[in-house]
Amino acid sequence: MTRPLLEAHQLHVEIGGKTVVDRLDLALEPGERLAILGRNGAGKSTLLSTLAGLRKPQGGAVLLDGEDCTLMPARQAALKRAWLGQFQADPFGSTVLETALTGRHPHLGRWDWESTRDAELARRALQAVGLESMKERQIHTLSGGERQRLAIATLLTQAAPLYLLDEPLSHLDLNHQMAVLELFAGAARDGGAGVIMVLHDPALAHRFCDRALLLCGDGRTESAAVDAILTAKTLSELYGYGLRQLEDRGHRCFIPE
Amino acid sequence: MPSRHRAALILASLCLLAVASFGLALTVGSFKVTNAEVLAALLGQEGGAGDIVLQLRLPRALAGFACGGLLALAGALMQVLLRNPLADPYVLGISGGAGVGAMFAILLGLPVIGIDGLAFTGALAAMFIVFGLAHGDGSWTQTRLLLTGVIVAAGCGALVALMLAIAPDERLRGMLFWLMGDLAQAGSSWPPLLALAVAVALTMPFARELNLLSRGMMQAQALGVAVDRLRYAIYLLASLATAASVTTAGSIGFVGLVVPHLVRLATGNDQRLLLPASVLAGGSLLVLADTLARTIIAPQQLPVGVLTALIGVPVFLFLLSRQPK
C-alpha cells in the first residue's frame, strides 16, 4: 500500500480573518493530478501555499509524505514537494542556468558547490521547457513567458515527487501551455509524481487532471472526479456566469453564454 | 555561476591587492620608510623607522582593513536582506544611533573609551528600536523594515544636528571628524579585526541560502531555506558588523554601498564569492583611501570618509546610469 504524497485533515484557512477553506479533507496519491478552481480571491493561492507548508493553517494539519509539514525542517520539505509561485521578482542579475540550478539547493550539503551532474540535470530541465539555447542569458532579458518556463525548469531541477503549481500557465502562449501541461501529465503518468495545480481554464483542468477541487470563497469546498464535477451547471454557479458545455472527442469545452 | 576554481582565483588576486594596499600604507607617509625597513620591522627588528611602522601605521592599516571589510560585508548582507541593490549598512539607522551616542560622549568631554562605548550603545539601541518596531506585528516585511530604518535614521540625524548646534566650538572639529569617518581615532585594531573574522566565519556557511533569499522569501522557503531564522541572523550580524566598524572609525560612507556593487558587477551575484570578495576589496579600498587621506595634504590629515565619499559618489552614479532599464 502506498502512502499518500499529501494529506490535509480538517484544514481551516483564513485570509485576513475571512474563512476561505473550512474543514477540508484531502489526500493525493502518487500519479494523481488535482486541479483547484475558483473565482479571484477565493483563496486558491493561499490554500496552495498552505498545502506546501509555506503558510501556517488556522486549523487542521497538512501531512507531507505522512509527516506534519509545520514540524518538518524546510530542507526536508523541499525534498518532498516543489512549489511554483505566481510571481518571480528578480532584483539582482543572474543567468538562466544559475537560476535553474537553485532547484538543487535541498540536495546539496552546506559546503557543496553544484557538480557537473547538477548542471546536467539543470540542462535537461531547461531542454524540457525549450530554454536550452538561452542558458547564459540574463534573466531580466527574458519575456514573461520565458521567465515562467524558467521557473518551471527550476521546479523540475528540484526533482521532488509532488508539484504544487500556482497558475503554471500564466504568461504562456497556447503552444507552451499544452507543452507544460503535457510535461506534468507525463511526470504523473511515468514518474508517479503528484500534481496539484491552480487553473483558470476548466476545459484544460478537465483534460489534464483526474480530480478537481472547487473553492466557493466562503469556506465551502467541493471535490470530485473531473467528469462528475466539471459540468456547465457547477461551473456556472462557481464563477457566477452562465456557461454552455460542448463535447468533442472526449474533451470538454465551456463557452460563456 | 563561478566555478570553485574561478572563485579561488579571484579571491587569491584580491588577497594580493590587500597585501599591496598594506605595503603602500606602511611605506608611504610624511616620514619616509623604505621597503627594507618595513620588512625588517615586520620581522621583529627593533629600530627607529620600525616604531613608526609597528606603532602607528600597521595598527591604523589593520583597523582600516577591518572596518572596510566589515562595512562591505554588512552592505552585501543588507542588500540581500532588503532585496534591494541600493541598500547600505547605514540605511537602517545603525550609524545614526552610533552618531547620537558618539556626539553625546564628545559633548560631555568623555575620553576615547567613553566615545566608543556610547557609540556602540547607540548603535545597539537603534538596532533594537528598528527591529522592535518593524517586527511589532510579526509581518517583518522588507518595506516595513526599510521604512522603520529610514525614519529612525532621520530621527538620529536630527539629534546629531541638535548636538552640533549647541556644541562649544572647540569640540566641533572632533565631532565633525567622527561623523565623516576617520581612522585617526581608531584605538586598538583587534576588536574590529576579531569582529570581521567572526562575521565572515558566521556568514560563509549560509552563503548559498543567501543566494536563494535574494530571489524572494517564499521561493527560498520553498527551496528549503529556514527563511525567518536566516533573516533574523542576517539582520543581527549585519547590524553588529556595522556597529563594530562605526564604533572604531565613525561613519565612513560609501564603502558598504559601492564595494558590493562593484564586486557584483565584476563577479556576479553568487554570495559564496561575493561576500569574501567584498570583504577583501572593501578592506583594501579603505586602506588605500586612508593612505591617500593622510598623505594628500600632509602633514594635515583628511578624514577618510570624505575621500571614500569623493571616490564613491561618481563611481556609484556611473553604476546607476548603467543599470539596465
Describe what this molecule looks like in 3D:
The complex is a heterodimer of chains A (257) and B (325). Chain A has 257 residues and is α/β, with parallel strands linked by helices. Helix content of chain A is 33%, strand content 27%. Chain A has two domains: 177 residues, P-loop containing nucleotide triphosphate hydrolases (Rossmann fold); 71 residues, no CATH class. In chain A, the strands form three sheets. Chain A has a six-stranded mixed beta sheet with strand order 6-7-8-3-9-10, with helices on both faces. In chain A, strands 2-1-4-5 form a four-stranded antiparallel beta sheet, covered by helices on one side. Chain A has a two-stranded antiparallel ribbon with strand order 11-12. Chain B is mostly helical and 325 residues long. Helix content of chain B is 77%, strand content 0%. Chain B contains 14 helices and no strands. The two termini of chain B are 23 Å apart.
- Please state the average pLDDT score of chain B: 88
What's the story with the biggest beta sheet of chain A?
Answer: 6 strands, mixed
Strand segment tally of chain B: 0
Query: What kind of assembly state do the chains in view correspond to?
Result: heterodimer
**CATH architecture assignment name of the largest domain in chain A:** 3-Layer(aba) Sandwich
Mean model confidence by pLDDT of chain A: 94
Number of domains in the coordinates of chain B?
Answer: 1
**Protein chains sharing the most extensive interface:** A-B, 38 and 29 residues
Topology:
The complex is a heterodimer of chains A (257) and B (325).
Chain A: E1 6-15, E2 18-28, E3 33-38, H1 44-51, E4 59-64, E5 67-68, H2 74-80, E6 82-84, H3 96-101, H4 116-128, H5 144-158, E7 162-166, H6 174-191, E8 194-198, H7 202-208, E9 211-215, E10 221-225, H8 226-229, H9 232-239, E11 243-248, E12 251-256
Parallel strand pairs in A: 3-8, 3-9, 6-7, 7-8
Antiparallel strand pairs in A: 1-2, 1-4, 4-5, 9-10, 11-12
Chain B: H1 4-27, H2 35-42, H3 48-81, H4 94-108, H5 112-135, H6 142-166, H7 169-180, H8 190-203, H9 207-213, H10 217-222, H11 227-249, H12 255-267, H13 271-295, H14 304-322
Helix pairs in contact in B: 1-3, 1-13, 2-3, 3-8, 3-11, 3-12, 3-13, 4-5, 4-6, 4-7, 4-11, 5-6, 5-11, 8-11, 12-13, 12-14, 13-14
